[in-house]
């Protein structure tokens, strides 16, 4: 069977159209005619040997194969652009101060820093993995240039809304949950130290459902929270992103637990127009975050687009 070799130019048109929500806008952005873009999309389906798009009302939506193709297309283009920047890109210098929530410290940070350092070895990065409250305080006071954080609607002056991610109850990976809502006992809640956004959501959700609760374990770090949850000391509330193998996402309704809302993932910026080094790091981080979020069911990624003719929901 002949190997499939995808055309990067075609993939760029495909991804640009999805990012902008319109292939007419993609044509303008890329300096091509709409007919040329249409021809490229037809070529992509021919190369993939399977339908990528399906009709959805007056617009287009991705098939399951198209969703898979989009993820790989982003990765192929990222690697291509990273190689081009490393070989011929602008020699960036200076400092970038980056802050992240603990959920991303082990899973996202090594990949982002590695990619950035290979392309821009003269830029020095100061990274802090801390809690939401401290991230917001540091970015608003100018002590951080960028901060990736959870948000219940709060925005700093310069905030990009990246995605909406589901929240889940978390229990030990091995064994059934020992507590049930019908038991009449207060639910043991394992939590990070206050102030904690997800702790507040957990207690408010339980209160609205009429379920009693007690704080059974408090930790200053996410690592401690995972250890306590894995040991069965209590149930926790988190997103599916970055869950270690020793804990698991509980299924909807398991143990009689109530349904949960979704949570915004945002990127706070200290200033409207940052340095080229800061903007490049922000771009790499956003690419990595979107790839991680795309793998989480029921998540929704936000793009800078309006008047969609590509159906993304």
Automatic annotation (TrEMBL):
<dbReference type="GO" id="GO:0003700">
    <property type="term" value="F:DNA-binding transcription factor activity"/>
</dbReference>
<dbReference type="InterPro" id="IPR036390">
    <property type="entry name" value="WH_DNA-bd_sf"/>
</dbReference>
<dbReference type="Pfam" id="PF03466">
    <property type="entry name" value="LysR_substrate"/>
</dbReference>
<dbReference type="InterPro" id="IPR005119">
    <property type="entry name" value="LysR_subst-bd"/>
</dbReference>
<dbReference type="InterPro" id="IPR036388">
    <property type="entry name" value="WH-like_DNA-bd_sf"/>
</dbReference>
<dbReference type="InterPro" id="IPR050176">
    <property type="entry name" value="LTTR"/>
</dbReference>
<dbReference type="InterPro" id="IPR000847">
    <property type="entry name" value="LysR_HTH_N"/>
</dbReference>
<dbReference type="Pfam" id="PF00126">
    <property type="entry name" value="HTH_1"/>
</dbReference>
<dbReference type="GO" id="GO:0003677">
    <property type="term" value="F:DNA binding"/>
</dbReference>
<comment type="similarity">
    <text>Belongs to the LysR transcriptional regulatory family.</text>
</comment>
<keyword id="KW-0238">DNA-binding</keyword>
<feature type="domain" description="HTH lysR-type">
    <location>
        <begin position="6"/>
        <end position="63"/>
    </location>
</feature>
<protein>
    <submittedName>
        <fullName>Putative LysR family transcriptional regulator</fullName>
    </submittedName>
</protein>
<keyword id="KW-0804">Transcription</keyword>
<keyword id="KW-0805">Transcription regulation</keyword>
């Amino acid at each position: 069977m002949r190997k499939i070799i995808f055309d990067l130019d075609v993939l760029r048109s495909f991804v640009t159209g999805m990012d902008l929500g319109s292939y007419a806008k993609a044509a303008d952005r890329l300096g091509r005619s709409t007919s040329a873009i249409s021809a490229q999309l037809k070529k992509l389906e021919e190369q993939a040997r399977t339908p990528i798009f399906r009709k959805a009302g007056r617009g287009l939506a991705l098939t399951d194969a198209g969703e898979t193709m989009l993820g790989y297309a982003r990765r192929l283009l990222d690697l291509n652009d990273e190689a081009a920047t490393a070989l011929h890109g602008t020699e960036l210098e200076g400092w970038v101060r980056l802050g992240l929530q603990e959920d991303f410290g082990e899973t996202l940070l090594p990949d982002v820093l590695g990619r950035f350092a290979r392309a821009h070895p003269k830029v020095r990065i100061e990274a802090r993995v801390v809690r939401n409250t401290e991230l917001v305080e540091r970015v608003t006071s100018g002590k951080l240039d960028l901060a990736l954080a959870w948000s219940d609607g709060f925005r700093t002056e310069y905030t990009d809304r990246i995605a909406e991610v589901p929240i889940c109850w978390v229990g030990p990976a091995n064994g059934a949950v020992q507590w049930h809502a019908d038991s009449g006992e207060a639910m043991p809640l394992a939590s990070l130290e206050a102030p904690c956004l997800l702790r507040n959501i957990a207690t408010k959700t339980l209160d609205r459902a009429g379920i009693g609760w007690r704080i059974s374990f408090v930790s200053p770090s996410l690592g401690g929270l995972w250890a306590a949850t894995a040991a069965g000391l209590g149930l926790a509330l988190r997103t599916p992103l970055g869950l270690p193998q020793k804990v698991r996402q509980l299924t909807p309704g398991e143990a009689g637990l109530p349904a949960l809302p979704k949570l915004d993932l945002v990127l706070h910026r200290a200033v409207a127009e940052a340095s080229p080094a800061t903007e490049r790091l922000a771009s790499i981080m956003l690419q990595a975050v979107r790839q991680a979020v795309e793998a989480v069911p029921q998540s929704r990624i936000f793009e800078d687009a309006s008047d969609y003719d590509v159906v993304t929901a």
